[in-house]
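User: I want to check something. If I give you two sequences, will you return the structure for each one separately, not as a complex?

Assistant: Yes, each is folded on its own. Here is the first sequence with its structure:
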Amino acid sequence: MTDQLFVRYHWKSENPDPVVVAYMEKNYPKDLTYFDFAKDFKAMDFNASNIAEIVQATGARYFVFTSKHHEGFTMFPSKTTFGWNSVDVGPKRDIVMELKVAIEETKGVKFGLYFSLMAWFHQLFLNDVAMNRTDYVEQQSYPQLLELTNKYKPQIIWSDGDWDRSDTYWKSKEFLAWLFNDSPVSKEVVVNDRWGSGCMGKHGGFLTFADNYDPGVLILRKWENCDTIDKYSWASTCLCLT
């Protein structure tokens, strides 16, 4: 995966695309920060019911929405993301709840949530590596997973952002034990395989492997191919929210 191919995916790339850099320098002031973009995210054209209708019309049997990606901005009012979620800033809406309600009103479509374990510029996350601690997990990612499960009751939890730290660091075993035994979705929830370095392609209710993966052979276990709709980035798949 290269920066040129997935320009939206990387944070502070060591090899930035010159076309992207030139565009930013031309159109935005130099003192603009990443956080400043949140206030301009209004979701004016977002309509959960319309999305649910489209999903159902395609014949899809499940729908997975990104509740939080690697930058840490949550599309729900998490108690741990003060001022960095879709209710406190930007659209002032609980996007996850709106989609949950709309999808559940359709017939035969399961509701799922994607969740990035990491937040690549959160200071606690950065400090954990330097100091061999787990403060970020204890105060951010783990509580957020509990919030998502208890409040929104997803039937699918699609974990990501796990690759450079172990399942022990992420407390994956603890969370999954609770999820399948004591959570409100214990009898129906399905999870993927991204719960720590070395887990991908091995452990999970279904496998995802790497993005744009071509197995080359028949895989006997249930698996999902993570591919892009356009060939340059993940961005065009989420323009309906801007």
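And separately, the second sequence with its own structure:
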Amino acid sequence: MKAPQILIIELRSQYTWLIERSLRELGVRSAILSPAKAKDWLTANRPKGIILSGGEASVNDIDPPIPPEERLSIVRWADIQVSRILKENGDYERMSQLVVVLLCVNTVGVKGDARVYGPTVGVRGIITSDFMTGRGYQIPKEVRRRITSTLTKHSGIVHVGFFEEDKPPGTTEFE
């Protein structure tokens, strides 16, 4: 059996199993571990991403926000497209982490002859050995252009942004 692609570090969240199930439905292998066990596990495994699930605020969240299915389907589609393009160009395997997010801000653009308002997709790659610090992955210019061209063909995506700063000061967490 292949190693998990995503490590979910459990910090007392009511959403951990929902996250794990959603990943499984997408065909992504994941492992759920406590912070104490995660460090040892990371020395032997190299997941493509880490999710910190929980914290003080999420434990007490009575009425959590639920993203509309339309936004979830857009970010799922975008993640598949970005991963495919990066794999085809040999960049995907060079990264330790890849994050594709749908930012919670609408921007203006033009599609055809009309002004449109819609979200921005953010793409962030990191090269790291400890998942606490790392170097922002510089996606080659032509690959960035291909990603942007592909993603903005979707009617629900207006802009694409690339986040290439190191970690720190940047992180892979978008809120």
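Because they were folded independently, the notes below concern the second chain alone. The longest helix spans residues 69-88. The radius of gyration is 17 Å.
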